[in-house]
Amino acid sequence: MAAQPDIATVTAARAGDPVAIDRLVAGYLPLVYTIVGRALEGHADVDDVVQEVMIRVLRNLGELRDPAAFRSWLVAITVRQVRERFRGRPPAEPLDPDLRDPGADFTDLAITRLELSGQRRETAEATRWLDEENRELLALWWLEASGELTRDEIVEASGLSRPHAAVRIQRMKAQLETARAVVRALQPPRCPELAAVLMDFDGRPGALWRKRIARHTRECRQCAPVWQDMVEAERLLAGMALVPLPLGLGSAFGDFTINTVAGGTPTQAAAGTKAGAVLMPKLLAGVLATAAVAGAGAIVMAYREPAEPSVPAAVVAPQTSAPASSPAPVASAPASIAPSPSRPVSPSATRKVTPPAVATASAKKGVGVWRFTGSKGALSDVGAAWYYDWAPHDDEVPGPAGVEFVPMIWGAKDVTDATLKKAKAEGDVLLGFNEPDLAEQSNMSVEAALDAWPRLEETGMRLVSPAVAFGGDTPGGWLDRFMTGAKAKGLTVDAIALHWYGSDFSAASVNQFLGYVDAVHQRYGKPIWITEFGLMNFGGAPKYPSDAQKVRFIKGATTGLEKRSYVERYAWFGLPAVGDSVDFGLYRDGGSPTEAGRAYREAG
């Protein structure tokens, strides 16, 4: 996306400078089209909503007190306009296919024009199965993942608190994963049992059918593999490089102006031909189709297979034939920009563009953290989606923007009104007691934990079980008795927390660990959070593995955890590699990972 106007341009536009106003609109129009187009799923209303946004922005520009806040203010207005358009639609009425504008259908263009392959095509199709509120959030999150928006701008635009926004994003990504499984299950040849389930299916994506199909895939042995080997959405984005706009199209962006006619009402116009004025919004909607998938306003994107997401691809835009009924703005790019696959690509026709840095490699990956110099930088560098510090709030170890903090009620002494209130302010998920089966940790009996659990329920948060030190799969063990008691008392436990440390440093450690995770899941049938794991020999020598052994274990363990759909989160113990944790931690300071730290950074 072209560089957006600076603060000086915003200030001049606010003062009424017509040239600055033109620059401001031209610079931010692609961003507005991207957000609206993704949220409205290519509906024909996209152009109208974009125009409403820009008119509202210009009418109220004089009231903007801080020019530096213009982008956040613009995004917030855009999201409000999208919501107003949603509220204006009949809630139960399906979208009439005739209302769709083929030239602005972002998902269709991304699939047919850009020839997305494999899991990128699957992900693009899966967006049709998301709830409306999640499509809106997906539009913002994709822009964040590509570096176009910040988490602060998403928070302001959505009206959510930072912790709530983090939780909503995680839930949206979980729904996207479910939708991808649905898309896979619907590919022929279908399972005979699924075919029976789909007897009344009209082919239209919706929440009810998403849930029915997903439930079948979880219960059907033949369909279960659709949940395996999913590349994280962030990884798909990371492999998508961008190419510059064709020269002719770039001038169309630059020619777009907002003129003020008599009466002070802004109207849309384009310098040049009358046809150009009519075509430009459609052209923008079409060429920005890629932003629905890549998360940035680019004319086309080139992809590399997910196995090498961090290596920038030499960008080549494939030419494709489009149906006669659909405009094909991408095909009009000059040959020097989008060469035919049959012709050699000259160095001058391509440009290597480094993909935006993606802060999070996996929505599952996290770390346990305690205070050390550089904790915030290390949290950002390691690519953690979440972290915790065994406390009900993040006052001790504040994290960077975009990394979710998950609070914990460590033990009986923390079950107070004040502590629970602090924990609730941090988010929607709450970790239960820490190793209650050990005297040197929270040291709680099963009965005491069950008596205290209703207090945690009163927060209304999603509750993760107490994390036992060992024996989570043992009949009659601490966790087994707690889960039996919780069921008898009608208490809520939404997921199971586990700790695991292996004293066998050989290659067998990976399967030992994953086998334990599988056994616990099979026993309770609930999602799993591994809140501590690593290699340590507490009773023998050597106490810690070598760097090579840690790296091998991290690679194997995280690969296995990513493939298990029931594993929601995992966290290495721990992030600091200082003092007494130097032999098993990941970072010496904010930017100095150990060998294990580098392996964990690449995981997911």
UniProtKB/TrEMBL annotation:
One example of a Gene Ontology biological process annotation: DNA-templated transcription initiation
Keywords per UniProt: DNA-binding, Sigma factor, Transcription, Transcription regulation
Entry protein name: RNA polymerase sigma factor
Region (Disordered): 322-357
Domain Asl1-like glycosyl hydrolase catalytic: 383-600
Domain RNA polymerase sigma-70 region positions: 24-88
Similarity comment text for this entry: Belongs to the sigma-70 factor family. ECF subfamily.
Top-level lineage group: Bacteria
